[in-house]
Design a protein that fits this description.
Number of strands of chain A: 18
Order of helices and strands of chain A: EEEEEEEEEEEEHEHEHEEHEHEH
Helix content of chain A: 10-25%
Keywords (chains A, B, C, D): Hydrolase
Oligomer: homotetramer
CATH class of the largest domain in chain A: Alpha Beta
Largest sheet of chain A: 6 strands, antiparallel
Number of helices of chain A: 6
GO molecular function (chains A, B, C, D): carboxylic ester hydrolase activity
CATH topology of the largest domain in chain A: Rossmann fold
Number of domains of chain A: 2
Domain SGNH hydrolase-type esterase (chains A, B, C, D): 139-328
CATH architecture of the largest domain in chain A: 3-Layer(aba) Sandwich
Protein name (chains A, B, C, D): GDSL-like lipase/acylhydrolase family protein
Pfam families (chains A, B, C, D): Lipase_GDSL_2 (PF13472)
């Protein structure tokens, strides 16, 4: 093999004109990518570019996608270890390439050992500034927003990182349609109040104010996952909350018993199959409280509750909760939109929305957000 | 990282139920994948699967795509070296997964150092038989058939392996639509008579009877690239020949001078911009001779000349040549089909057909071949 | 011209196997078609078929579409008079043709002279029974449901019957997708509480219990438009209510002054552009009361409020009103669905939903109703 | 009914700014529309417009479509008689409406009684000039070009005018895509040499130099159908010849015996199912001769043989014939394009191309003609 003698290595902390996407700490030696859709972005004027990553996990390995000039050209599993990955080689050194290296899998609450870090890059060229985008969007959600099932055959049933995609995902598609920068906070199975199986700890709001508080274990703690997130550093124009699917599921699944306290949690159905009013009210209170918390931390953002990709049984409750919030606070910069439901034609792996379902949602959501952003 | 203690390693030559796609030698220790679309296919009943590859090159690195149950889930550059790649992990060990590891880049005439080999697999399960498909198709072509530009942004201009795709390719799509096994013989820039720049050595027919004779250098010779290909081992039902685009281009480009003999080659235009009749006749003779060679080696196959994805100025000449062949030989199992032209909407990188253009061609070609195969 | 000597004329009242669609009176000598989508349907085993219609109007002429075997083949303006129209001729007399002659324009509140009647048919064959469909749907709406703008160039601005379509209409498309019989109650500009311009008389609920009470004038009275509608004669499985767009518009338009009483009506905006709470409550009460009335008359039907094809500012109020209704009555067979918004790509004439927008709504609505109808 | 007192009637010969489409005689009192796609076009600044037509036939009645501002809004059978048809009413009298009244059915060789004439218009406004289009295209063809089966259910089998469409037709679609004026010469079942059933009289070339020579009977003769056509009056930029499908069919159908001379005609198959060489040569000579005739009458036009919508077995012969023509005459402004084949998804009534097949052909053909017209 020919060797490119002109390659020079740079610690990531020394790379000027580096753009980091996604909530993370200030640390750059190395940089940790926590959330799906997190990324490093570079405009490389070079013939060759490598990136040094470090991957670890007990169960669920990280995956990345690489985009060159906006087009995904590579997607790979990152087996454990610290090593160099070649991003491109043999290109015209006088032409600037926009490069995004994107974490393709969600933060993993279920695997304390899971982490993805970037140490360094090497190249034979220079990095020029990445243009700022005019809008910022934060997406908050569950497996849908994590892109679970957005890649893979319909027959797939294993719960593994391979079937997650940050790219075939309405978040990325919506942001691209609006020319917006975006961040994602999401966790499969979680809700506003409880998880799909009634676990009250598996709720997003409790972790919203941390960098990535829902990951577990000492290593993640040491990486700063539990640090208070600095909202001033990145104020979104819009926060999209795509939660409720798992809260709805909790009514249909068995109770959850806290292994420590022995306390049992269950969102109840009435005998006629309708939702128990008290439990529904508890959910609605959780929505209202979360809106409060979102507003506190994002004083200027439009808050858009976007729901419906896997059915929309909780919609009346969401509307009531948003109503209640609006009345209590007098805040009118909040609204609800129903997203296109997933059909047999648009479903993907693991009975989750496939790429086509994500596309339809992105079309509808981008159109709606254009009105809000006054395009 | 947790380690799977149950993984066992197998030399590829010891793997029963291995299916190899694409022309290659009988050698399995290791197996060499020469052509784009070449692949190993396995039905793995296992929770985890790795493959040991060896990649080398002076200029143009190999890429692979991995398909699980027919869906591409990974695509990666193979930097030089011998190493293990994880295909999947953490899956249900009782379920059979169909796996294809596909060479995503053409054989590289321009890089004698380029090679891709597979040494071994390791797994914690077993390999069950891969079902035989009812049809076999051989595709012969140039950059179009190599999938040049089928991936990447429209702005891309570098001639590098990254922009080649065996997957976003009419060959793979047509074969899938027909439930056919397929092989590809292709080289960017080459033609029936000459290359796009009038080089008479860059013609596919001269190498058709070898395993992969158009690759160069001692290493490839040692790997058996120049060996006589055993046509009896794999007789296609249809041979699709998508050649002529570069032969047409040769009329528009400067002459080529043989560096050894000093002889100059040029397909000439008349003053009014039409093709010089003599040179056109030379092209037609090359087509006719190639059909003879194809028939000799594929006595039962339907020969389908399929042309037009980047314009169709050579179509009258191709029809004349096929006519001449039919008359000389009395062979009626040969026909011509015009493929959908690439438009602004369907173009990909490097001004070549994009994924959508390949899709349109696959739709038209599969429909046509259904008639021939008596679906 | 050759004359078909075998044609025989039949008063409509004498035609057995006649299927009448749409609310109308029991009168068949002649039959009056009031609403858009109203129709006569026949299975004609004949070579030729004519229909005798009578059309009248002061301002807005009726139009019809003719469907043969489910495909629209003719659409024509019906100028005033009583005359025969040829439906088909020259066909195989041994083959049964399904024929629908459909009123393509809404009932016209603004034109007391407008009427469309069918007197007779003539044919050289026989009429065989029309198969009953397994489902019945009633659609209630405004200009959207009347198909205003579903045909015609985007530039069209005249308010004329030509731009109305019962065929390029989500009602017909949804019914076809579900293999359902359907009826339509609709009027451009009208709402649940008021019209788009604050006229409280222009509300659908007040006329819901009559055959077609919203048309005016002595002639229509004599035709029985104001008769009490016999709900027992046709009980829908689903009632789709697509109202609210004009009620929302009323907040944005000037007050309406009753010419008789001098009383002024206006749905008010607050200074910050939000809806005045009292007026919103008045709207919500109107929704709740209408649901009461719908339930009274359709004891078994699912009530589906479907809204959003021209934006969805009233959605929170609609959800509140449906909630209130459900709580008051304990009725859970009522739900809300947001329909796909109309975009630049899907808009039709007069800034109304075009055919493509109707198609998208039909896709979403049919999918949703499949769940309700337990497909 | 209210009567518009301001309507004034004008003999068509007195209407300035009238645009007539399609080959016809100079006669305007009345104007005869012979071919499918023939039309009158007006830019009417008026609130109301009527047209007086006269229709006659023994077997096959004429149909028209009416387009307002380019959009088809009405389609109707024209039963025999002379009468007024209302085109529009109630529109803004200050706005100009572009109106096309289009003959939707081919000239009828099989019905000497068939004719469609336009006598007069009446309106309350004025007619302003119709803008000239930059290109002119002549289409020559058979049932495909006549739009047979482009409207109607797939199950339809009757050969009746109802299933013909000049609008859902690649001719109209291609012309619209290129902003071109167009004319159509076509007849179902006819070919270059013979009809589908070997009748040598049913060939288009013999009638190409007359206004509409293929219609029959004294009435049509008196209307000038057999007059020499004045090619100078309208010179196309492109002539598209879509013939060959019926010539191909003749090889598969029984012989035709001339009832007068007793002579028998048959395009023969060889025993192996291939075309008999002599008979194929006869077809090719007919193609070559027709190209000669087309060139004589259209000295500057590009001649484009466009074939393949219902399979393309004659393509080799067409290429040979075009080759032969080019060599004999030295004419290079002639080319061949294969059109997209009709599939199960795109087929219409009577096993003919449906609207979607016409759309696909129009897309491909317009793209090709753009290159020729140097867009």
């Amino acid at each position: 093999m020919g060797v490119n003698e002109r390659l020079q290595s740079y610690a990531l902390s020394d790379v000027s004109n580096l753009k980091v996407h996604g909530r993370t700490t200030g640390q750059r030696s190395p940089l940790t990518l926590f959330w799906t859709g997190s990324a490093v972005e570079l405009n490389a004027k070079a013939s060759e570019l490598w990136v040094e990553i470090e991957s670890d996990y007990d169960l669920y390995e990280p995956w990345i996608s690489i985009l060159i000039n906006g087009v995904p050209v590579s997607r790979q599993m990152l087996t454990a270890g610290r090593y160099w990955i070649c991003v491109f080689r043999g290109m015209n050194e006088n032409v600037v390439k926009n490069v995004r290296i994107v974490k393709d899998v969600q933060a993993m609450n279920g695997d304390p050992g899971c982490s993805l870090q970037i140490h360094a890059v090497k190249s034979d060229g220079v990095f020029v500034p990445v243009e700022e985008k005019p809008y910022k969007i934060e997406f908050i959600g569950d497996s849908i927003t994590s892109g679970e099932g957005a890649i893979g055959a319909k027959a797939e049933e294993d719960w593994i990182p391979m079937w997650f995609s940050a790219i075939h995902n309405y978040t990325a598609m919506t942001a691209e349609a609006l020319n917006a920068e975006y961040r994602v906070i999401s966790q499969s199975g979680w809700g506003v109040l409880t998880s799909w199986d009634n676990n009250p700890n598996a709720n997003i709001p409790d972790y919203y104010e941390q960098v990535c508080g829902l990951v577990t274990g000492d290593k993640n703690a040491a990486l700063g996952a539990g640090d208070k997130y600095d909202f001033n550093s990145w104020q979104p124009d819009v926060v999209v909350i795509n939660l409720g699917s798992n809260d709805g599921g909790a009514f249909q699944t068995p109770a959850w018993k806290d292994p420590v306290t022995g306390k049992v949690y269950k969102q109840r159905l009435n005998e006629d199959g309708t939702y128990h009013e008290e439990d529904l009210a508890t959910f609605e209170n959780a929505v209202t409280r979360f809106l409060d918390r979102l507003r506190k931390n994002n004083p200027e953002a439009h808050l858009v509750w976007a729901y419906g990709m896997l059915g929309f049984p909780m919609m009346p409750a969401i509307y009531r909760a948003v109503d209640a919030y609006t009345k209590q606070v007098g805040d009118t910069k909040v609204s609800v939109i129903q997203l296109p439901n997933t059909t047999e034609e648009t479903v993907g792996a693991r009975s989750h929305p496939g790429e086509l379902s994500h596309r339809k949602t992105a079309d509808a959501l981008a159109e709606y957000l254009k009105g809000i952003l006054k395009f």
